[in-house]
Fold this sequence. Notes:
The protein is α/β, with parallel strands linked by helices. It has a domain at 353-448 and 463-486. Helices cover 27% and strands 15% of the residues. A five-stranded mixed beta sheet has the order 2-11-12-13-17. A four-stranded mixed beta sheet has the order 6-9-1-10, with no helix packed on it. Strand 12 (361-364) and strand 13 (368-372) form a beta hairpin. Helix 1 (11-17) packs across helix 8 and helix 6 runs parallel beside helix 8 (222-253). The protein is globular. The mean pLDDT is 95.
Amino acid sequence: MGCxxxxxxxxxxxxxxxxxxxxxxxxxxxxxxxxxxxDLHTGRLNFLHRSWGPLEPFxxxxxxxxxxxxxxxxxxxxxxxxxxxxxxTYHNRYTTWDCVRGQEWDPFIPVVAPPVEEFSRQYHxxxxxxxxxxxxxxxxxxxxxxRRRIDHESDYTLVQCVxxxxxxxxxxxxxxxxxxxxxxxxxxxxxxxxERFRRLYPRAYDGPVLDWPRYARVQESPDEIAELQANYASxxxxxxxxxxxxxxxxxxxxxxxxxxxxxxxxHGYMLGEHDWWAKNRMPVYQxxxxxxxxxxxxxxxxxxxxxxxxxxxxxxxxxxILDFHGKTWPETVTGKSLLPAMASDIRIHDSVIYGMFxxxxxxxxxxxxxxxxxxxxDTRDLWEYTLMxxxxxxxxxxxxxxxxxxxxxxxxxxxxxxxxxPACPDAKRPPIAIGGFADGNTVxxxxxxxxxxxxxxDDPETxxxxxxxxARLMIVNEAPPEAFERLSLGQSCA
Length: 494
């Protein structure tokens, strides 16, 4: 994004930034997709207790809080993970919701006998291989089927989402007390965009379709790498163009004077940096952890184009939205409202932690990042705490209930006892299904001297300080005792 110093074609993101407040040090919390959304809904981290899963019965969800107090909340999305086993409690927290079907491997178009030979010629061997041929074993085949229905730009789910958002505004913009969450799956893989956006990024590659890398180490040729990167850039520019239609509506109908607009995402994506594609498996480098946050608020139009250097994080968005609507938030919220930061560049956090269930716990103070991995990379002494035992797209298996117990030791569960379930090493949760964690070294980086995080820093004093901050924030977020033991951390902040 140009407004963050990038070189891609993003005139509308940049145009929006020029009339909004840009947060330069905004970070993820829990990873990846649905854990990030649970952070967003509840205003607190969840990766210390739970892998990918639904909202829990005890979770206080911001759209539900708003809806109960008279604000109409609407979710409009093509993010099909909401409608799988591991996400099925989120959309019903909104007053109304709408889903545009067909993204990625959404089980949408029913084809009993897929044209596998045609696909083998159409797609690159890294995208279509023996694993893809088994419909139940790899969703890439379903994605190829879904893509066959796209004949015109208007058939893209991104385009349909934005059109529905404009319809919502046309119907409701004149009224008060509403919230629209427009959530577009793109620029998620597959990086497929119409030719007019592809022409923005010339490439030398001349082969079968290659727009969906594996969650793996880079093994492609330079031309193939460039093709994948160009396809991502094309899709990002498509997102920019259609975001511009939202901005046009704001311009034409004067919404800037009475409507707040927040732009952010759940996480980033590796595009060959550190010789990795995608997410989940590798350390949580800046490309994944450091994400955009841009906010327009009518009361702070005098701050248009200003920037904020203070640390912010995904859980901060929930109390911020409630603050925008004049609502208080539950005591379980650990995020901070960003409304005061709209007025001036004040410090919200001294440091933040982030990560993925079972992996490293990571901390940053804005200047340094510190990745701390468990001494044992397996699931020994790793437990899931939940009343909703589902993984990404299936329930927990019977064996995952062996040695289970019922505990009531966390304040954030609001008196609900929860199941404590052993995290089985072969459970169907990411990243186990795609090869497991890799490159798990405890390291410290200086982002000012080494923004690419290429050379670990040997600085015992800074490492000790960030270790102390990590332990402090784990206590704030009620990390279970075994989380401290796995990382050889003391629970005292003295």
